[in-house]
Design goal:
A hairpin with a 5-residue loop joins β3 and β4. The strands form 3 sheets. The chain has a 5-stranded antiparallel sheet. It has a 3-stranded antiparallel sheet with strand order 7-9-8, covered by helices on one side. About 60% of the residues lie in helices and about 15% in strands.
Length: about 325
């Protein structure tokens, strides 16, 4: 009996241990499943948050892109035809302004107006035509013209006060263009500078020197100043000396022949040739022909060279400066 009871007790303990082991394994699996569910439940709200707050690729970003697209589409639907009409008006206005400018330039050329005045008037006509087209384009686009003009007027006053020097040059340029104290191609001297007038613009006047350099003078420095205008021609002031024993008439005739043969010397007005001084060792002959501004320096070189050659060929003496010194109280040995 004890043996059977002991065996029964051992079997009962073994069964109980197996049950406990199975229950422990089941509890571990249950806890693992609960942990996986909790992790899945924790990831789900995070994914939802990423989708709802995820920038451009999230729900809010997609809504913002859609709103922008809707706004752009509505803008083009509302103002698209007006924009197209305004662009067409500007393009047509630019073409008309260019055509009207060309016609104006041809008409002014027939009227024999100077280039600066013609250029100024053509630019003014083009700006007026294009400005009218711009106003029509703005009106087509729905912009109120009256407040815009008022604002531009106020801004113009401020700009005028800030740019007095520039406006002064423009007004002086208009004064020069319309009063014509000098023209393009003339030789002038003023405010310590001189040269041939190359261009007359609204802001400045450009003078050209014989060496090719240019002097640019602001127009407001010209108006009101004393100016020497030589015009398109200049008079040379040359001189040559001959000996007191030379044939004076032959020397004068030779100089006249040299001037007549030089193509740079103008026939009208006639050259001025004559005795200008009786120096210590020579008779000074003044030679003053008229030449064009561009021939001023080349003509001097050519005339001097021809005088020296012809005087040597004809035996006309060009004396050196000399003095005769006599000592008193000495007798010849």
């Amino acid at each position: 009996m004890r043996t059977d009871g002991r065996v029964t007790f051992v079997r009962a303990n073994a069964g109980f241990a197996a049950n406990v082991h199975r229950e422990s394994a089941f509890a571990v699996r249950l806890r693992s499943a609960s942990a996986r569910q909790e992790a899945t439940a924790d990831k789900a709200p995070r994914r939802v948050r990423e989708l709802t707050t995820g920038g451009v690729f999230g729900i809010n970003g997609a809504m913002q892109v859609q709103q922008w697209q809707t706004t752009v589409v509505n803008f083009f639907i509302t103002y698209g035809f007006q924009m197209v009409g305004a662009i067409i008006i500007l393009v047509v206005g630019g073409i008309i302004a260019r055509s009207v400018g060309k016609l104006t330039d041809k008409w002014l050329t027939k009227q024999h107006l100077e280039a600066p005045i013609r250029l100024l008037l053509v630019r003014v006509v083009r700006l007026l035509v294009f400005g009218l087209a711009l106003l029509l384009a703005l009106d087509k686009f729905g912009v109120q013209i009256t407040p815009l003009i008022a604002g531009l007027s106020v801004a113009g006053v401020g700009i005028g006060l800030a740019a007095q020097g520039v406006l002064g040059n423009i007004l002086a340029g208009l004064t020069i263009i319309f009063t014509k104290p000098f023209r393009v191609g003339e030789y002038i001297e003023l405010v310590g500078v001189y040269g041939q007038v190359e261009t007359i613009a609204l802001f400045s006047t450009t003078l050209l020197h014989i060496d090719g350099s240019r002097v640019i003078i602001p127009n407001r420095k010209i108006v009101g100043e004393i100016m020497h205008n030589y015009g398109g021609t200049r008079q040379l002031s040359l001189s040559v000396g001959i000996g007191y024993g030379a044939n004076l008439k032959q020397a004068l005739a030779t100089i006249h022949q040299i001037l007549d043969a030089n193509p740079r010397v103008l026939k009208d007005p006639a050259p001025v040739v004559g005795i200008s001084a009786l120096a210590d060792s020579s008779i000074t002959i003044s030679v003053s022909p008229w030449v064009k501004v561009a021939d001023f320096y080349p003509a001097q070189l050519e005339i001097y060279e021809a005088i020296v050659e012809q005087f040597r060929a004809r035996g006309i003496e060009i004396p050196f400066p000399q003095r005769e010194v006599r000592l008193l109280g000495q007798t010849n040995a």
